[in-house]
């Protein structure tokens, strides 16, 4: 068939074979395709050696500490104004961009990626694989943020004004009750899970997707177990919280909220909408 014969004549109905191919290329992946991409990602993560998961999780904890640092830098240089938080909160996105684009292990991402394989194959083995991933990554993330907080607090790495700025931002957590920590964590967990779900179809817009979703978390004042643990550790080292207060008033309620938002809400709903098609 010649090129001329492939092209429809003026007034003819239909599209050429090349145009059909172009339509397929430009189309958004069907929901079952997105589900399968995220599920396979979870399978791959759960199959990784414990050592790899640990160090990737530590790297994520260190990287996400730059969210607090970037916010403090912006606030230090911005004038006092009603719009200041809308700009300074963009700094919150920095750590997430480093983590997600760097393919580092972040606990809240695994609240959907590791859950979808379990929902498809609900066995004790699958549940154990998920629990193993969660335990290693969460512990590694926390160690990474704790090291970052120690480094910022007890070394001359930062000017005194910048350290005080980081501590001032962290003190926003002190105003939240246990219940508020939980429900703010639900919103954050849902948004992070939505971000992970959107990334396979985002292609070159990944940067914007990550920035948009994490910016909403920042300006909404929602609580995130990893990014927030940097702030909680800063408060503990500054003497605002005792270790048991940090664990009881921040870590436990936010962890519950993030798991409910990312797993019980987003992951289960995502699976429910495709379970008859897979």
Describe this structure in words.
By secondary structure, this protein is mostly helical. It has one domain: Up-down Bundle (Glycerol uptake facilitator protein). The protein has helices at residues 3-6, 17-26, 31-47, 50-77, 84-88, 92-101, 107-113, 115-120, 124-154, 160-170, 178-202, 206-220, 227-238, 243-272. It is globular and about 65 Å long. The relative contact order is 0.15.
Total of domains: 1
Q: How would a textbook summarize the main sheet?
A: none
Structural class: mainly alpha
How would you sum up the global shape? globular
Low-confidence stretches: 3-8
What is the quaternary state of this protein? Answer: single chain
How large is the count of helical segments? 14
- As for the CATH topology, it is Glycerol uptake facilitator protein
The separation of the N and C termini measures: 38 Å
What's the alpha carbon Rg, rounded to whole Å? 22 Å
Q: What is the CATH superfamily label? A: Glycerol uptake facilitator protein
| CATH architect. name | Up-down Bundle
The gist of it:
The protein is mostly helical and 278 residues long.
Key descriptive features of the protein:
single chain, 278 residues, mainly alpha, Glycerol uptake facilitator protein
Helices and strands in order:
Layout (H helix, E strand, L loop, with lengths): L2 H4 L10 H10 L4 H17 L2 H28 L6 H5 L3 H10 L5 H7 L1 H6 L3 H31 L5 H11 L7 H25 L3 H15 L6 H12 L4 H30 L6
